[in-house]
Design brief:
Radius of gyration: 19 Å
Number of strands: 9
Strand order of the largest sheet: 1-2-3-5-4
Distance between the termini: 33 Å
CATH class of the largest domain: Alpha Beta
Number of domains: 2
Shape: globular
Structural class: alpha+beta
CATH architecture of the largest domain: Alpha-Beta Complex
CATH superfamily of the largest domain: Aminoglycoside phosphotransferase (APH), C-terminal lobe
Number of helices: 9
CATH topology of the largest domain: Aminoglycoside 3'-phosphotransferase, Chain: A, domain 2
Amino acid sequence: MSTGQTHPGTHPVDDDLVRRLVAGQFPRWAGLAVERFPSGGTVNAMFRLGDDMAVRLPLVRGGADDVPKERAWLPRLRPHLPTSVPEVLGAGEPAEGFPWPWSVYRWLPGENPEAGALSEPVLLAGDLAGFVAAMRSITLPGAPRAHRGGPVASLDAGTRAAIGELRRIPQEGIDCDAAAAVWEQTLAAPGWDGPPVWLHADLMPGNLLVDGGRLTSVIDFGCLGVGDPACDLFPAWNLLPADARETFREALGVDDATWIRGRGRTLSQALIALPYYRKTNPAMASNARHVIRTVLEEG
């Protein structure tokens, strides 16, 4: 977790709080070692609990809203997916001055992939495509709308504001005119006119786990729901090199309009993230720079 407070209203958490919460609500696990797990995430904090579990606590009100969503949907999604996903072992409730629900999960081994340092990028692209395709094929009823899953136009005001802010930070070296041109192309692309599909909706490197270069787990389903399939194309630009990007696209059979929307959505997220996180969260800011560079180089 970044040591800087990256969102207003962040609630302080530490090892001692987690020990008290676990001992009070799950006495069978009291006495297990508790250690904060470093992460670039900004909405939740993660702690190892013994060797085989993890405690995940929301840091902000918005993250708390995601806890019941994961509890409700992950058990229903898991049988349909080709990779491991988080398994809730304990449903924690507010206590000890901590105001929100929290969860104990089975620990998932692996490490986050890093753009530019992938050992099997083409194989990883195929794995990612398999996960996205499996999500899209799910037909479970009653799905919520995915975070970011609506029309591209809903991102317009925030994206333009971020481009304006980056113009006032010349040291970042962002070609804001080029970014604005890509965004205009995104807005001009045909929207999704098919039925909404199931999405993870936050396929950032920090939400992927790999072993030996291959995808083993996808985590953090707080944004899940249904919407525009372009929303799950993020890894094409936030992680994969050009040849693997093409493998990813071909495996999913992505049409031109959806590809343009996916590229624009990924760029929008990065443009908004960079000025917000540049001084508080190095991991998020670094990936945002990578996305912007990749998208603009692709043209």
